[in-house]
Write a structure and sequence with these properties.
The structure is a single chain. This protein is α+β, with helices and mostly antiparallel strands. About 40% of the residues lie in helices and about 20% in strands. The protein contains twelve helices and 18 strands. A hairpin with a 4-residue loop joins strand 6 and strand 7.
Length: about 425
């Protein structure tokens, strides 16, 4: 959430930032509500001061034996002041609720290093790794390979749950599990992250703290009876691990990694990528998350991108790193990089990771602070998140990049220790 003080002090800069994001943000309405809230608070404080003074005078007159009529008039005036204060307090509460709702819907301000763009075509490829394979045969898409090898069952997925669902079976399920185990193992053992196994359902305030509510309610699965929300990514519970906490000196940085199933309604993707397993309402992901000191957060972002890249390198998958322009940034992000792997069967680059520095945007919403030193004033932390990596697109890339002329799939060397020694899927 943006600071109202920052908006008040530099409204034109905030308007420019929203424009660069291609957002029609109601900054004038925000400022109007803020001004009205402050006016009401000032009026209430003035009335309380008057009430206090009148009460003292009433007590003095009453103790001095003033006549009943004078005391009655004064009591009536005190009653009018009390009623007016109650009315103003109600108006303050209503105005603050409207202001908070607007603030919760404003995206983060892009960092100055982010390229200004009109859409995703203005994103910048900053580096590439690996060589796109040159097959001596026509590379086939994963949906053909998966069905012929009997490791992906689309028909039964639809029978069980409907469109955009599928079943992984046999060595397909094993390969997915091996990818998850390999990624967790590397991030924990080599990169030093602490593993978390989070709930897949969370409370409303948890969704608000991570920036998913109220803006993206239509894209989330929700149990209305108990007001539980299914997580669209492990970023949601990880953000809120330290909600309403003040972290003591020396605790930061905190690096967490979590596997979770993820649930999204994919409303914005209606009609897109209907073949295969690229887009589904349920998918798996290994999530990286960091709580850091503000002055170190952008260095931590670069390190997080490197950690995600390491997975692609271990799997020997050709990939590229793309810096997102202002128009393509996620809602909470101030700066983001995507990692895209090449899928030769689909003939496209698939995003398998998006790493973002959210600065203090989520920390303000979830009230997560730290003390720079003993006795120092608490400040908001910076939060970062990234996929390390996201399935099933990594699975797609493995199937399509490691396919053989006879339709079998060679298992990447890095996965063999996690596949019970199986080296070929046939």
């Amino acid at each position: 959430m943006l600071s109202i003080q920052a908006i008040r002090q530099a409204p034109d800069a905030v308007r420019e930032a929203m424009s660069n994001r291609q957002e029609e943000a109601p900054i004038d309405k925000v400022l109007s509500l803020d001004e009205e809230r402050r006016r009401l608070i000032t009026e209430a404080e003035t009335l309380r001061a008057s009430q206090k003074q009148e009460s003292r005078e009433f007590a003095r007159l009453k103790s001095s034996g003033a006549d009943t009529e004078a005391l009655g008039h004064m009591a009536q005036e005190l009653g009018r002041i009390r009623d007016r204060i109650k009315a103003i307090e109600f108006d303050v509460e209503k105005t603050e609720a409207a202001l908070t709702d607007l603030l919760l819907r404003l995206p983060n301000i892009p960092d100055a290093s982010v390229p200004v763009g009109r859409d995703e075509s203005d994103n910048i490829v900053v580096r590439s790794w690996g060589t796109i394979p040159d097959f001596p045969f026509r590379p086939r898409p994963h949906w053909e390979l998966g069905e012929e090898l009997d490791i992906i069952d689309f028909a039964r997925g639809v029978k069980l749950s409907g469109s955009r669902f599928y079943v992984l079976k046999g060595k397909g399920a094993l390969l997915q599990r091996a990818l998850i185990a390999m990624m967790l193992d590397l991030h924990i053992r080599v990169h030093g992250y602490t593993e978390i196994y989070p709930p897949y359902m969370v409370k409303r305030e948890t969704m608000v703290g991570s920036s998913n509510l109220p803006k993206f309610a239509d894209h989330l699965y929700h149990d209305a009876e108990e007001d539980y929300w299914f997580v669209p990514t492990a970023e949601v519970p990880l953000t809120n691990l330290h909600r309403e906490e003040i972290l003591e000196p020396g605790v930061l940085p905190l690096h967490y990694v979590a596997y979770s199933a993820c649930f999204r309604r994919e409303k914005m993707a209606a009609g897109r990528d209907t073949r295969g397993i690229k887009r589904g309402h349920q998918f798996d992901k290994v999530e990286l998350y960091k709580f850091t000191e503000p002055e170190k957060s952008f260095d931590e972002l670069e390190a997080m991108v490197g950690d995600a890249e390491r997975i692609c390198q271990e799997l020997r998958l050709p990939y590229r790193v793309v810096q997102l322009s202002t128009a393509d940034l996620g809602f909470a992000s101030a700066k983001s990089y995507d990692i895209e792997v090449w899928a030769p069967g689909c003939q496209e680059w698939l995003e398998v990771s998006s790493c973002s520095n959210c600065t203090d945007f989520q920390a303000r919403r979830a009230n997560i602070r730290y003390r720079p030193g003993t006795g120092a004033k608490a400040q908001f932390v910076h939060t970062l998140n990234g996929s390390g990596l996201a399935l099933p697109r990594v699975l797609i890339a493995v199937l399509e990049n490691y396919q053989q002329p006879d339709g079998t799939i060679e298992v990447p060397n890095a996965l063999v220790p996690f596949t019970r020694g199986i080296e070929v899927i046939n």
